[in-house]
Amino acid sequence: MSRANCLFCRIADRTQSADIVAEADRLIAFKDIRPQAPTHLLIVPTEHIPSIADVTDTHTVLLGQAIHLANRLARQYQLVPGGYRVVVNCGAGAGQTIWHLHWHLLGGRTMAWPPG
């Protein structure tokens, strides 16, 4: 898939609008357009990586940076006291609908277990 055909690449390239809430080295975060919780943010690498299954050794630092950004946003959105969830779906059977690696940061309500 080319960057031009990938929704999250277009958001990262600023050719598609989104409610961007943060940026970090090689990452961008924005509000989900179909929120599943009062706070539902997406953390997306600016590099096109189709799914977590496509991560290689070269992405090790990026993965740590994504979790660090999720934690920073959880504090910023005051999710820490009540708890929050960070989710990565891998493949259609797990609910992945956009073929660009991304983390969901969800909070502001009680989360059930198991999810799905």
Quick overview of this protein structure:
This protein is α+β, with helices and mostly antiparallel strands and 116 residues long. The chain is 20% helix and 22% strand. 24% of the residues are buried.
Protein architecture, described:
By secondary structure, this protein is of the alpha+beta class. It has a single domain (3-107), classed as HIT family, subunit A, CATH 3.30.428. 20% of the residues lie in helices and 22% in strands. The chain contains 2 helices and 5 strands, in the order αβββαββ. A 5-stranded antiparallel β-sheet has the order 1-2-3-5-4, with helices on one face. Strand 2 (27-31) and strand 3 (39-45) form a beta hairpin. It starts with 6 loop residues before the first helix and ends in a 9-residue tail after the last strand. The mean pLDDT is 95.
Q: Which secondary structure elements does this structure contain, and how are they paired or packed?
A:
Elements lengths: L6 H6 L7 E5 L2 E5 L7 E7 L14 H17 L7 E4 L15 E5 L9
Antiparallel strand pairs: 1-2, 2-3, 3-5, 4-5
Mean pLDDT: 95
Which fold name is given in CATH as the topology? HIT family, subunit A
CATH class: Alpha Beta
Counting DSSP H or I runs of 4 or more residues, the number of helices is 2
- Determine the CATH superfamily: HIT-like
Strand order of the largest sheet: 1-2-3-5-4
Query: How is the biggest beta sheet arranged?
Result: 5 strands, antiparallel
Please provide the count of β strands.
Answer: 5
Name the helicity range: 10-25%
Our measurement of the CA-to-CA distance between the termini, rounded to an integer number of angstroms, reads: 28 Å
